[in-house]
Amino acid sequence: MTNIPRKSIIDPACSDRLFRIAAAGSAFLVLVLLAGLLVQLGIGSAPAWREFGFGFLIGTGWDPVANVYGALPAIVGTLLTTAIALILAIPPAFVTALWLVDAPPGIGEILSQALDLLAAIPSVIYGMWGLFVLVPVMQDYVQPFLSETLKLGKIPIFGEYGNGFGYLTASLILALMILPYMSAVMRNVFRMTPSILRESAFGVGCTRWETAKDIVMRYGIRGLLGGVFIGLGRALGETMAVLFVIGNVVELPENLYASGTTIAATLANNFAEANGIMRSVLFALGLILLLLSLGVQVLAQYYLAMTGAGRGEK
Amino acid sequence: MTAIAPGKRRGLFGRKLIDRIIGLLSVLALFLAVAGMIWILWVVFARGASIISWTFLTQPSKPYGTLNGGIANALLGTVEITLGAILIGIPPALLGGIYLAVFGKGTKLGNAVRFSANVMMGMPSVVVGLFVYAIMVIPMGGPSGFAGSVALAVLMFPVVLRTTEDMLLMVPDALRESALALGCSRAGTAVRVICRSARSGLVTGIMLAVARVSGETAPLLFTVMWSDSWPMHYFTEPTANLPVLVTEYATNSPFEEQHTAGWGAALVVTLLVLLLNISTRIIFKEKHNGR
User: Fold this and answer.
1) Is residue A216 part of a domain?
2) A–B: how many Cβ contacts below 8 A?
């Protein structure tokens, strides 16, 4: 430590204050950005709200020629794909986290890293894989198997026939994408359970599953919920992977095999060419998506803060 | 002692069976997830590797319909946009992280910022694209590489801010107090002592954030758009970049050759992101163990 300047030209108290102001300003930038997002999307969407009012939220039309727009198909598509993805991803996320926490150190470490890598793959790669690989597989094998072999085609929510694109395919990809995030948060929650609780449960003769279900899950239920909301938030806003496989038709879902759209996919598909009232409509869709995901994130942070588990991201 | 009602008692065999079944299901779920990852990576390698060649990596892409183009302009554009995002986003994120960890512990502003940053991390990236479109593309009259950098910087900002705070908080208080006792100013302590001892953690956080945004596509779709020329006009014109090239070739092209070129570009993106990600983890882990 020889190069500490003995005499600084600037008064240290003054530079101290300057540094502190700069740091506080940078931190404050987060709040400015968040407010700016809401304000800008609000301004951009104002003409659409004036034109259509709140009926926009439940309108089902989408006709760029006649300038008739409704947000309901995109909203329903977003909620539907997210819901299916969650149903598909929560159980495996829970049991993988359960297993990884108690896994032998070597294997557990490698598999945890593998799951983290799954989260690192860019979403456009998921989309491309979905379009060129998963869509044909769904069309040729999975959908015929579900509707003919398992006779699910008779149930209205499944279709008799699908072309591979649509809600089910998009949900599958979403499930694969959010699984590592949820699993990582759940792993943290499991690790935070005091070992005395788990050991006591084992001591009175509980099996591993009973310990997980009756002790760990009860202890960390808020953290687990936080993890689910993190996954939910990801699925709501995911754009590229969904855009490639959803089919991009603005219609209310007929069944799971039908092509449709989500808010994010509608934005990505139309925004570059949009102008006039349509651009404003897309801003309004963006605002809806922003408010949805803000709500989900606030809930997630609320639950995670209650357990102090932190986010699964590093 | 109250005995458990006979109806509620479960046999040991049944309980152990359920336990085994759940164990089996967890291994199966892990296997499926890892198999999914290997499937995706294998497809990208198998379909993209054949086209990778010196000319593919050094020639610019050609206009629609001309088929033997490369991806060099997109590669260069992606590097430009990512570097721009780093220059714009990292300095305020580091400063903000220092504020949270050193000055803002327990203050109202600190808590509000921490909460908002956590919320912002989960924000859909396509919405950030809309935001940057409103504040930059409309006033500037058109998409540009610079606007894309701003979008990526907005995405990176909360992530780096929070990891910086976490890393700085891991520095022992005794170190900070000693520096203050020796007469260092609080700013000097923050930069020369705390940041220096948390350096490897800070670099890790930055690198992982860079890896994450360099494959981002949605915010670039309408802020940067796409171009077939070399990325010479970063501040004023649409700039070529890899993720949008992949999207264009995969969805807007009927030509088999362009699909293959798309796979090649996808392979380059994947390698870029994963190498950045994996090498960061390995380097950080070695340093961590060495301590």
Assistant:
1) yes
2) 274
Domain that holds residue A226: 52-307
Q: In this complex, do B109 and A264 lie within 8 Å of one another by their Cβ atoms?
A: no
CATH number of B54-290: 1.10.3720.10
pLDDT, position A311: 45
> DSSP string of A49-117?
HHHHGGGGGG---EETTTTEE-SHHHHHHHHHHHHHHHHHHHHHHHHHHHHHHHS-HHHHHHHHHHHHH
- Domain extents in chain B: 15-51, 54-290
Tell me, what CATH number does A294's domain have? 1.10.3720.10
Residue for token pair 């439940």: A58
Instruction: Determine contact, residues A173/A84, Cβ cutoff 8 Å.
Output: no
- Is the distance from CB of A223 to CB of A307 less than 8 angstroms? yes
Nearest to A236 by CA among A33, A83, A59, A72: A83
C-alpha to C-alpha distance for A277 and A268, rounded to whole angstroms: 17
For residue A37, the chain B residue with the least C-alpha distance is B131
Whether chain B has a CB inside 8 Å of the CB on A79: the answer is no
d(CA B222, CA A273): 9
What is the distance in angstroms between the Cα of B131 and the nearest Cα belonging to chain A? 6
Touching A: B residues 57-86, CB under 8 Å? none
CA A192 – CA B111 distance, rounded (Å)? 23
Q: Hey, are the CB atoms on A240 and B263 less than 8 Å from each other?
A: no
Chain A residue numbers touching B27 (CB-CB < 8 A)? 99
Region of residue B225 (phi > 0: left; psi between -120 and 50: alpha; otherwise: beta): left
Q: Does B158 touch chain A (CB under 8 A)?
A: yes
Give the pTM.
0.91
Q: Do the chains contact at A44 and B130, CB–CB below 8 Å?
A: yes
Taking phi first (over 0 means left), then psi (-120 to 50 degrees means alpha), and beta for anything else, what does residue A275 get? beta
The answer on pLDDT for A10 being more than 70 is no
A266 lies in some domain: yes
Domains contained in chain A, number? 1
Q: Per the CB < 8 Å rule, is A264 touching B124?
A: yes
Of A29, A128, A208, the CB nearest to B19: A208
Domain presence at residue A274: yes
Beta bridge partners of A68: A63
Chain A contacts of B127, Cβ < 8 Å? 37, 41, 237, 286, 289-290, 293
Whole-complex ipTM: 0.90
Nearest CA in chain A to B217: A124
Task: Out of A4, A293, A301, name the one closest to residue B123 (CB).
Answer: A293
pLDDT at B116 over 60: yes
- pLDDT tens per residue, range A155-199: 777 777 778 899 999 999 999 999 999 999 999 888 888 889 989
Q: Residues A22-30: what's their mean pLDDT?
A: 93
Q: Which A positions 219-248 lie with beta carbon below 8 A of chain B?
A: 230, 233-234, 236-240, 243-244
CA distance A88 to A121: 20
